[in-house]
């Protein structure tokens, strides 16, 4: 897999500039879709009173996750180092199977496509896909 | 519904006949814990599973492997009824145990590898293909009650 090149990073940053004000909305919708479309992901949220896709817990978590993505955009030049803490959290405490990162990334991009159909061009799509994949790799780095 | 041919069924039964579940059983859970350490998430009540030595000496780990292979044994003997057979187990793993079904896929691959270590050339490509087709139908059945 090729890594993020300069053009990809510029594309991600530019697109994020346009959509960052809607970060919370994107996060809420993406998390909701993940739980609804991939019900196996609910297995990580047994500690929530309400695991339904539109629950308050789900909305709150969507915002948290998207906050992490926003932060990762600012650290796009060194995701490994930038996400060290989160990687350790996911590896040792949360122990989320890394296959789920791809699932969530897909749902984030579905929401982006719905909310920004004109701006989410194929070029933006590929850059965002590569970025989210690189983000997932950085998160999984401490796993083993 | 996965349709297994007569040749595949015969290959699956033959290869399964060669498996000593008391020998292979303990290996499969220890492998998944060592190779995919995040799966330790599912075994919070098993005691010390945090080093390779501890995993290999843990009796609950080895027992659970045997339990899994016993279920597989029933599946080999009922190849037409796998979805129904695993309905209860699927529901339990989802509703009570909160197991990510990706773990079933990972465990399936560990089972095949543990068997390959013991069976060596008896696990030839044709046998492996039939065996994995069967195993993935079990994985599929284990996914069915997730909602």
Would you kindly provide a written description of the structure presented here, covering whatever features stand out?
The complex is a heterodimer of chains A (144) and B (147). Chain A is an all-alpha fold and 144 residues long. Helices cover 69% and strands 0% of the residues of chain A. Chain A has 7 helices and no strands. In chain A, helix 1 (6-19) crosses helix 7. The model of chain A has no long low-confidence stretch (mean pLDDT 94). Chain B is mainly alpha-helical and 147 residues long. Chain B contains 8 helices and no strands. In chain B, helix 1 (6-17) packs across helix 8, helix 2 crosses helix 4 and helix 7 (102-119) runs antiparallel to helix 8 (125-143). The longest helix of chain B has 19 residues, at 59-77. Chain B starts with 5 loop residues before the first helix and ends with a helix. The chains are: A mainly alpha (144), B mainly alpha (147). Chain A: Keywords: Heme, Iron, Metal-binding, Oxygen transport, Transport. Chain A: It comes from Gouania willdenowi (Blunt-snouted clingfish). Chain A: Residues 3-144 form the Globin domain.
């Amino acid at each position: 897999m090729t890594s993020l090149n300069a053009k990809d990073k510029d594309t991600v940053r530019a697109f994020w500039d346009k959509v960052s004000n809607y970060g919370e909305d994107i996060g809420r919708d993406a998390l909701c879709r993940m739980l609804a479309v991939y019900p196996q992901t609910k297995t990580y949220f047994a500690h929530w009173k309400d695991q339904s896709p539109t629950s308050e817990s789900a909305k709150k978590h969507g915002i948290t996750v998207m906050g992490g993505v926003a932060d990762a955009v600012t650290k796009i030049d060194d995701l490994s180092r930038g996400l060290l803490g989160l990687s350790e959290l996911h590896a040792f405490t949360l122990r989320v199977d890394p296959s789920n990162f791809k699932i969530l990334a897909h749902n984030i991009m579905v929401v982006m496509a719905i909310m920004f159909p004109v701006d989410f061009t194929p070029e933006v799509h590929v850059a965002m896909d590569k970025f989210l994949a690189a983000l997932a790799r950085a998160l999984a780095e401490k796993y083993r | 519904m996965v349709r297994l041919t007569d040749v595949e069924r015969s290959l699956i039964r033959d290869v399964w006949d060669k498996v000593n579940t008391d020998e292979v059983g303990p290996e499969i859970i220890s492998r998944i814990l060592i190779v995919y350490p995040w799966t330790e998430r599912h075994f919070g009540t098993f005691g010390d599973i945090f080093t390779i030595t501890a995993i290999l000496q843990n009796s609950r780990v080895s027992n659970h492997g045997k339990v899994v292979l016993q279920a597989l044994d029933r599946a080999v003997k009922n190849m037409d009824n796998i979805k129904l057979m695993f309905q209860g187990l699927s529901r339990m793993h989802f509703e009570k145990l909160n197991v990510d079904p990706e773990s079933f896929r990972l465990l399936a691959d560990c089972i095949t590898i543990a068997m390959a270590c013991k069976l060596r050339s008896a696990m030839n490509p044709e046998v492996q293909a039939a065996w994995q087709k069967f195993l993935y139908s079990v994985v599929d059945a284990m996914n069915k009650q997730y909602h």
